[in-house]
Amino acid sequence: MTKRAPRSAASEFWWGTATSAYQIEGATSVNGRGPSTWDTFCAEPGRIADGSTGEVSCDHYRRYAEDVALMGELGVNAYRFSIAWPRVLPTGVGPVNDAGLDFYDRLVDALLAAGVTPVPTLFHWDTPQPLEDAGGWLGRDIAHRFADYVDVVAARLADRVHDWITINEPRELTMLGYALGVHAPGRTAMFDALPAAHHLLLGHGLAADALHAAGVATVGVAASHAPVWPASDEPADTDAAALFDLLDNWLFADALVRGSYPEDLLPLLPPGATDDLPSIGGRLDWYGVNYYNPIRVGAAVAGADQVDGITLPEGLPFSADITGVPMTDFGWPVVPEGLTQMLRLLVERYGDDLPPLVITENGCSYADGPGPDGRVHDVRRIDYLRDHLGALDAAVSAGVDVRGYFCWSLLDNFEWAEGYRQRFGLVHVDFATGTRTPKDSFGWYAEHIRAARG
Ligand code: BGC
User: Fold this and answer.
1) Quick check: CB of 36 below 6 Å from ligand 1?
2) How far, in Å, is the centroid of ligand 1 from the Cα of 409?
3) Which of 118, 182, 339, 434 lies in the 20 to 30 Å Cα band around 272?
4) Distance CA 226, CA 177 (A)
5) Looking at the DSSP assignment, which residues form a beta bridge with residue 306?
6) Where are the alpha helices (DSSP H) in 216-296?
7) What is the predicted pLDDT for the residue at 226?
8) What percent of the chain has pLDDT over 70?
9) What's the first-to-final CA gap in the chain, in angstroms?
């Protein structure tokens, strides 16, 4: 594997906020957009907790100018959004839907006019349904189709968009979408889901090459990471935690950063997977970390386990939970120091091979809505952000090279299997009317950015 020459990830620290297409755009059958796995999944009874879909959501497709204006007020200098593959290529492959590309063209121009750097993610889980029908990410071909789509998008936008993210959270799509079936496409392949991880990583590598060939300045990824805490010092617990850690963190990061796979997981990957590693590793100009919380893991115990609100099936070789810490309204542990720990673990593992880091997601779900004064006093989100930004500072003070922070999320939005029950936004959205109300955390973050940028 050849190590890429370091490029400047961001000349100025990115103070940003993040969203994704299916979660905010709505307009799912407008102007030629094709169906995605999430449209199909939402239509299946019982899949989404509140029975909702992303059909309207925040209606960002129509209200994007209002949302860009909000970003102007917030004072962010970067915005992470995603491009919907089925909007650009309705069947996943040609022909191109120009109307779909036109939307992102307008969005990019609006962002640039507002002084906000666009940082698009090319794939945030909305696989075109025809490609899923042909096997989806469990097959290899889709990685090449993804690179073809990236060529199309880059040809239209790379003259103005210089910083790109290939894929969002290959871990979640593999584990939640293909192994456990709680996200689209709803497959329950358990350990047989791991080929999806490999093909997503291959898709990343091929897409990164396409972007670099198009002359873009920087390519990143958005990978979720959680420090794994063994439940005890007993070997049964530390062994279970070590396996979980490989699956959760290092399967993905080793391939992306070093172009290798953890030896112990090779039997679960497709035959010949290691031959693809030279096409996966070493392509990143910066490494994006999505951080929410650590996970405590021990040997399997009878009874259902909950991880981040998801019930794990029986029969897994580990159990996971965390108690004794504050929880968000989603039931996710609030552990800011886990962010410092995770960043340090990445540095310890990869040393000089690790590109500069960017926090591509961090945020919390609290249900606060407008009070009698019409304002949203989300003090718990302010505490959360203050503490996590403090944890980020601690990592930077310890020498970790971090180039940006994107708060998840700009808007309350469609939170996947939870529907609209979880609110991660700095801006409250009334989903009946589309009305946006900046929360108190919006003002706090704006102030923080102003102070940090001097
Ligand atoms: C995803 C987002 C999601 C957020 C909160 C991340 O896993 O990238 O799409 O909304 O976490 O669950």
Assistant:
1) no
2) 9
3) 182
4) 18
5) 311
6) 235-245, 251-253, 273-276
7) 97
8) 96
9) 41
Q: Tokens 């965390």 sit at which residue?
A: 322
Consecutive H or E run containing 229 = strand 228-230
For residue 307, the one-letter residue type is V
* Domain ranges (residues) in the chain: 14-452
Residue 454: partners with Cβ closer than 8 Å, 6 or more residues away: none
| C-beta of 79 in contact with ligand 1 (< 6 A) | no
Say if ligand 1 is within 6 A of residue 168 CB. yes
**Confidence band for 189, pLDDT divided at 50, 70 and 90:** very high
- Rounded to 5 degrees, what angle do the CA atoms 64, 208, 117 make? 35
φ/ψ of 321, rounded to 5, equals: -170, 170
Query: What is the radius of gyration, based on Cα positions, of the chain?
Result: 20
Structure tokens at 13: 């620290």
**Which two three-digit tokens encode residue 310?**
């998801």
Contact assessment for residue 54 and residue 42, using Cβ atoms and an 8 Å cutoff: yes
Cα–Cα distance for residue pair 245/230, rounded to 1 Å: 10
- pTM beyond 0.85: yes
| Burial (CB count <10 Å: 0-12, 13-18, 19+), residue 359 | buried
Residue 74 contacts residue 452 (beta carbons within 8 Å): no
Confidence band for 2, pLDDT divided at 50, 70 and 90: very low
Q: Report the alpha-carbon angle 87-17-84, nearest 5.
A: 10
Q: How far apart are CA 256 and CA 202, in angstroms?
A: 9
**In whole angstroms, what is the distance from residue 407 CA to residue 204 CA?**
23
Question: 68 or 3: whose pLDDT is higher?
Answer: 68
Catalytic residue among 25, 361, 418, 447: 361
Number of Cβ atoms within 10 Å of the Cβ of 95: 9
Active site residue 132: no
CATH superfamily of 14-452: Glycosidases (3.20.20.80)
Pairing of strands 14-18, 402-408: parallel
User: How do residues 245-255 score in pLDDT, each as one tens digit?
Assistant: 999 999 999 99
